[in-house]
Glycine cleavage system H protein (Rurimicrobium arvi), 126 residues
Amino acid sequence: MQFPEALKYTKDHEWIKIEGNTATVGITEFAQRELGDIVFVDIDSVGKALQTNDIFGTVEAVKTVSDLFLPVAGTVTEVNPGLDGSPESVNQDPYGDGWMIKMTIADTAELESLLDAAAYKALIGE
């Protein structure tokens, strides 16, 4: 299983890649494996200012529907357009083509509360 060192992680299995005041968010390889085959991603939060741990969308797999939680407070600026026609890209490339949203971060100090790769690996027992 992959745990890219450049990312931060949440206990709810989202990852966040920080580029200045902008961040890209998705679900981890562990999360997509637990969910199974992803068949639909529903995100309707573009333009919304949300707080840390607010639900920004859902991901539907063959087995279940799971909420997606925002890692830090901010405003959702973009949804991955590729997910409409290819939700399976979350399974195939969760840290690349399977990203979910881009957002502006309200307070970069919140990033300190997120897990690094080693802490996330420990959380899931790797």
Notes: The longest strand covers residues 55-61.
